[in-house]
Amino acid sequence: MGNDMDIKAKQNTHPNIQKIAAFRRLYSIAKKYNNGYFMLNVVMMTTLTSLSIGLNSEDLSKYFGFQQRDYSNWLAVASIIVLTIDKLIIGEKIDSIRETAAKIQEKFDRELFDLGWNNASAGMQPRTEDIIKHGEWYLNKHTDAKLRDWYAVENNSVPHKFQILICQNSSLYWDASLRQKINYIFIIGGVIIFSTTLISCLALDLSTSAIVTNLTALLGPVLDYGSNTLKENKASIANSERLLECLEQGFKDAIQNKSDTEIYKSIESIQDQLYVKRNSDWLIPDFFYKILRNSDENIMRQTARQLEERFK
Among 36, 38, 50, 217, which one is most buried in terms of CB atoms within 10 A? Predict the structure, then answer.
């Protein structure tokens, strides 16, 4: 385990590219279910609430010539159905697919770093058939250009233990920063949805009971999605910050020439927690990922180069 290893070259071999492709595809599938969760809870319920408010408005009914009707009770029924679908179908599917993806990513990391598999932390290893199936599907549909050089290691003269710590550090920094930005976006979006709905109800002079029913029916699914997203992202950010502190201690221990046994024990512990984190993280939609990632990823890669200079 203490032998030097060319992580830069090894990560670009076909078996490892195949693993990256497999967990990329599985995360993408899980994200599609998460997008469905968003479409049901936020987009559809916001649209139905807007229609319910509009159809219950006396002013709008006179202006457009339709019969005024109160659909707020049906909206409440739709809200209950959406929440049931979320809990019994979508949530279970996301958890199952995310777990398989996290296991494949853990297998990629551990084989790349020359670490043994930890059954106590991650359970049974992912099936080879799943890796080949999803990996080859991705590679047949896309090139491997975005999969190569997954970790920003450049200098092979850096000792193996430092290379691992640099790779683990790379996994954590940009993730925490990206999630913090997404949390701000969701908080602002939630305030806008609630404020706009309430103002519309008051402006269109709906009855108090209709206002309460419409707002409750909307806020149930929207708050369910929003609170889950904020809670999972806050937990993920806290875990990332805690693990980054552990990594900094690992760098200090290595500099102080502590035994390789102690250093690799710390590396193993961090890797175990990385799997737990990935298996529970809220899945960042590709839309946010593409828009917000680049600046943080550039910082991460520059940091990796500076750490390599420091420890070579």
Answer: 217
- Residue 95 included in any domain: yes
Contact yes or no for 29/104 (Cβ under 8 A)? no
Dump pLDDT digits (tens) for 101-150: 999 999 999 999 999 999 999 999 999 999 999 999 999 999 898 899 89
CA within 13 Å, CB half, 267: 26
The rounded percent of the chain whose pLDDT value lies above 70 is 95
47 belongs to a structural domain: yes
CB of 237 within 8 A of CB of 180?
yes
CA-closest candidate to residue 85, choices 220, 187, 236, 286: 220
For the chain, what is the domain count?
1
Answer whether residue 177 shows pLDDT above 80: no
User: Residue 41 CB: number of other CB atoms within 10 A?
Assistant: 25
Return the pLDDT at 302: 72
Characterize 175-194 residue by residue with b for buried, 16 or more Cβ atoms within 10 angstroms of its Cβ, and e for exposed: bbbbbeebbeebeeebeebe
Asked, for residue 108, whether it belongs to a domain, the answer is: yes
Range of the domain at 263: 7-147+155-311
- What is the pTM for the complete model shown? 0.87
Q: Is residue 2 situated within a structural domain?
A: no
Q: Which residues have CB under 8 Å from 26's CB, separation 6+?
A: 97, 98, 100, 101, 104, 134
